[in-house]
Amino acid sequence: MFPKPKPVLVPNTYAFESEPMVKATGFREYDARWLFGKEINLMGIQALGMGLGALIAELGAKQEVVTGHDFRGYSASIKYALISGLLASGCKVHDIGLCMTPMAYFAQFELDVPCVAMVTASHNDNGWTGVKMGANRPLTFGPDEMSRLKEIVLNADFKNKVGGSYEFHENFPARYITDLTKRPKLKRKLKVVVACGNGTAGAFAPGVMEAIGCEVVPLDTELDYTFPKYNPNPEDMEMLHAIRDAVLAHKADVGLGFDGDGDRCGVVDNTGEEIFADKVGVMLARDMSAIHKNALFVVDVKSTGLFVTDPVLQKQGAKTTYWKTGHSYMKRRTNELGALAGFEKSGHFFFNKPFGRGYDDGLISAIAICEMLDRAPGKSMADLKNALPKTWSSPTMSPHCSDEAKYGIVDSVVKHFEAMQKKGEKVAGQPIRDLVTVNGVRVTVEDGSWGLVRASSNKPELVVVVESPVSEQRMRDMFEAMDSVLRTHPEVGEYNQKI
């Protein structure tokens, strides 16, 4: 028998070393995230492995799992605790070692393994850990699987059996890199800043970009799990500004920044200006829909309205549907609809054939951006960006809000705007044109300006994004309108960054 996990244990005690600790809030909408040592211990991770093995069997999938881990000081030990749980549940484990998350997704196809359990805290601060899981490639778990996993683990409802086995796949990254680079080299000589924030992608991204024909300017590509400069998160302005400085200093054509586990890519143009990922998505959609007529795209509710209003996309017959934010939701929707690609404002991009296999991979995104530039030989990245209709948009802004409170507050905000629409009341001085409530609330007013409030799926935060096709002032008006509603809830704290 394995003990039932406790929600809290005190470190440096007998109990902490002898019982599993698993805080319930770590089971999030589509993956798992905990503060290691404060919210989960190694025996708790072992319990998670046993629970995952039991769930895989319950889902009717073959009990074979790819595992890998990102570059943090504690990730390898967490992975081995997870593996011990998977082995106890009867799983065959295929360990590919230190890797980026998309490398683990690729391994599911390359090794013909149905399931994945990737140990990563993605771009979260040091101290966080987590697992991205799936049992049906290229998809990852959604709320149903995560709720069931939580139930199994917290109730210690394990179905352990003999028969588990372990195999380490030596030099697996070489197979992934070969797969990415077996394509015609770029005709255009591009100088590219490759920024990794000392995270996992530093071991792989520079070599891949060189192999496709880029001249690479490496920036913080040395692996260092203390993250001495800043967190590897291409949505954070600190990382984007470091890329800007390198682009200008080296006169590069483009700057590409990868997050901690390499499934996202941020972009800075040749003038040093960051291009938020949703605008990069519009540029890629223009490029891809010129080659593939009547293309269908899926974008998340945080993304620019240009996907619907852009005249070039309209002329090329492209269609776009908005969906819930979150890599698992977007992956699933892109897969279900057979869309050519899915684009998320955070930088998770999902390319289906012929561009990819449906999962999010920052290096595939980077290659797609370089190939887009290759197909536009006389144009710079700034030229392609400036060809888009002008909009003023905010970065993703996240006010602190506890995991226990955030969903209730978002429900209340949704009801607030629904009531305003019903009564014909104005937001930022204008009538509401449209409300999208598939994921929080996206409020669009008459002039096309919009604001979004939703709950973060993997951190104790809310998410706020605003955009206006009219002016910077209208963007700020929308922010004030959204923020004034949030300020009626004392549980909502300070923002990580603001416009």
UniProtKB/TrEMBL annotation:
SUPFAM superfamilies: Phosphoglucomutase, C-terminal domain, Phosphoglucomutase, first 3 domains. Its cofactor is Mg(2+). Pfam families: PGM_PMM_I (PF02878), PGM_PMM_II (PF02879), PGM_PMM_III (PF02880), PGM_PMM_IV (PF00408). Keywords: Isomerase, Magnesium, Metal-binding, Phosphoprotein. One of its GO terms (biological process) is carbohydrate metabolic process. InterPro entries: A-D-PHexomutase_a/b/a-I, A-D-PHexomutase_a/b/a-I/II/III, A-D-PHexomutase_a/b/a-II, A-D-PHexomutase_a/b/a-III, A-D-PHexomutase_C, A-D-PHexomutase_C_sf, Alpha-D-phosphohexomutase_SF. Gene3D superfamilies: Alpha-D-Glucose-1,6-Bisphosphate, subunit A, domain 3, Alpha-D-phosphohexomutase, C-terminal domain. Residues 26-158, 176-272, 278-390 form the Alpha-D-phosphohexomutase alpha/beta/alpha domain. One of its GO terms (molecular function) is intramolecular phosphotransferase activity. Residues 423-483 form the Alpha-D-phosphohexomutase C-terminal domain. Belongs to the phosphohexose mutase family. This is Phosphomannomutase / phosphoglucomutase. It comes from Bradyrhizobium canariense. The lineage of its organism: Bacteria, Pseudomonadati, Pseudomonadota, Alphaproteobacteria, Hyphomicrobiales.
